[in-house]
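#lab-general

N.A. 3:47 PM
ok so I finally got the sequence cleaned up, no stray characters, all 484 residues accounted for. can someone with queue access submit it? mine expired

B.Y. 3:52 PM
send it over

N.A. 3:53 PM
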Amino acid sequence: MEGEVVKPSKTPQKKRKHHRHHKKSHSKSKKTGILCCRGKKKKRSSAKKHHKKSKTTTKKQPRSKVVKPLAPVPNEQLGEIVLVKNFDKTKPLSKEPVSPDKVPVVKPKSSKEKEKETDKEDKQKSKSKKEDKSETKEEKKIPEEKKEEKKEEKKEKDDDSNNEEKKQKWLGLAKRFVAEDARMAMNDFHQVASYIPPHVTKHNFVENMEKNRFADVVCLDHSRVTLSDSTYIHASFVELSSQKNAILTQFPLVETAADFWQMVIEQRVKCVLLLLTEPEYDALGGDFVFPRNQDFLHFEERSIRVGEFKRVEILNGWSLRVLSVSNGDYKSFLHIHHYTAWPHNSIPYNGNAQAIRQIWQIQSALRKYPPTSPPVFMSLSGCGRAGTFALFENAHASLHSESPRLDMVKCLEKIRDKRIHACQTLPQFSFVYTLLAEHILDNGFCKLVIEKKKNEKEDGKEEEQDPAMVSKAILRQMTIQKCP
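B.Y. 4:20 PM
back already:
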């Protein structure tokens, strides 16, 4: 049409610009070899500049820097072995600096004076050699082997004296076990049944009653476990020996389960002894504290994750669970020893030989864990069964200590100073006596007691008694199954 104005399309303009750009880039590419794309130009140009700078710097020699002397290394020890000693090489050899005014003026020496000094030095050297020879002769007279023999003899004498004291203590206890039977535990428990430690408080227990399972089981202030955020938990530190502590705690509530796992993480706990029967565990719904088989629990209020990896049945009534506990970057493994053969307010298997054997096996298993991580003894209230096991551990430690006698009353007082309701009943107290009696009589002391009883009697025509049968009879008579 003649009247219509035809507008030029935009595409040919773009093509022209792009063509011009290609022409320019093509003209440059002949000289420099750079491609037409602008992005590639910038990248390659910057890379070439960087490459040129690196070449120039490699040609230059490195600058010499003043090396500062290193600081002295502190003494690093592994036990009693010193790995690195502290040698400070930065200090000057002379202790006191000499002032320029006090510098002596050195005069040139004559030949005669030099000869006299050389003669004196030779005489001093000969004297020092003679002294060294005399010292070596004296040292040869007393060799190192004799010194070591003397030390070993002293150690043997000390060990013999300690063993004799231990034998006398254990023999005296064996006589009491044979003579007194169950009256021994009854007389001692009446002395300590109403014991209350002096000067104790329970302010935190009263202020946090909703976190306590029982209103009449007190958690003392001076021995309670405190968390890093100062929250309250019904748990107490108890001294088992001079080198080992334990934590006695109640079975957690639903509201305090996360606090329990926070305590496990902060105290670096490696094992928990759970003293609950299976009906008690099912009635409490223990799965909110400990996860089920091959399951996980999440405590979102404290960002803690607990999972069970393995479960092993060790003996009848004793199972072992392997758990993983993680909180942020922290991750550790924990063993739960669940013993289900100990009923509430009673003793396991009525105190027979099977019960005694199992408790000693559990005790030997818990001894394998490091003493730096305290074990946790947990029962329904954290006092009856957990306190009885803590008393057993404390009494066993005092049995092997240097004290001349075993005082079960003082042992229970030490436990109750930290956990006021520990070992609540007479059967539980007598069961600890039974465990110790089995340990002593099976170490050969039963034979000594039987021989002495035979010598005391006038008639020597009696039949010989089996020590194993006698010890079983003694243990059976010592055990109190029910409260009188």
